Prior knowledge:
mainly alpha
Amino acid sequence: MDRKESKKTIRTYSWASFLNDLGSDMIYPVWPLFVTSLGANMAVLGFLDGLGDAIVSLSQAASGYISDRIRKRKVFVWLGYIFGGLSRLGYAFSTAWQHLIPFRILDRAGKIRGAPRDAIIADLSTDENRGKNFGILRTMDNLGAVCGILTCILFVGSLGYRNLFLVAAVPSFIGAALIISVGREKKPDGSKIFKGVRLRDLDRNFRFFLLLSALFALGSFSYSFLLICAKEFGFHETFVPVLYLVFTAVAAATSLPFGRLSDRIGRKAVMVIAFVLWGLVCLGFMFVKSHLIVVANFVLYGLHRGAIDTVQRAFVAELSPEAYRASGLGGFQMVVGLCALPASVIAGVLWDSIGVLAPFYFSLALTVVAAAMLMFVRGGVSSIEK
């Protein structure tokens, strides 16, 4: 595929991602409020969010493996968007938190698109522009989220949760149609037959990065806790979606700059920055004294998401063997996502049994350990060093 066609394909996938996030982020700002309005406590909220993240991990691992095996990627992307749209229709008709479980599973199973799509972006990129291209994708993700949040803020009062969820299904269906409209995938070299990947097929460096990422993920609980925490600190319920907008807008604005920065100074250096930013978020909530500090914490969280969501994927793509790239990305997401289930459950139990700040102390400790381990990972060199 020539350079011009590669750019066009990346733009198409980026716009489809924009549309899907437009729909999903119409509901995410009010998700914790909606769940708790159906009678759920913080432990249940943590379970639902953690379950969703675990399903994400399993779906990405499965789709990454199958994608490499059958040498097809696009089908997983448009099918994932359809899953997302159908789940929002299900949320709209749920009347108890228990009803949300199957639709939450369907929603997060839609992430089967993740590893194959990331592999497509990685395959269309070079070492010199991979961070930039992942940054473009994340920027469109986050811009879609910003537009979705604004839509939520403007219309949730007049539409209510359920009608808003029905509207939110539409952009994902349009995104699926956009992906289907993309030209046929290039048929791979028939001599390259994928026979499956095992953990031992990946080098020790990749496995060590996987371990430290899993430790970090155990403390990296769902954003829902930050929103409920802000409500506990005195923010009115109608202002909570604005805080979601703050961190998403910051992530949108910084994803591409962080991607480009990682092309210059290396992936590992930007990963360190991401860990430091999350540590500052934890410290900020632990020692919060005013509403202004809470808002500043959401700005820092947005910077953290802008850095880690962009660079982590590019780093994993480079640490994985090219023939196993989708499997490596999917396997990474599986391990991190499986850790997210106990992470959010632990955070919910700590919150209910000890106090609001207990999850932040636990997360900060694991972040320090993960950041120290990162120093021993090789790779992620900058284009300057090359």
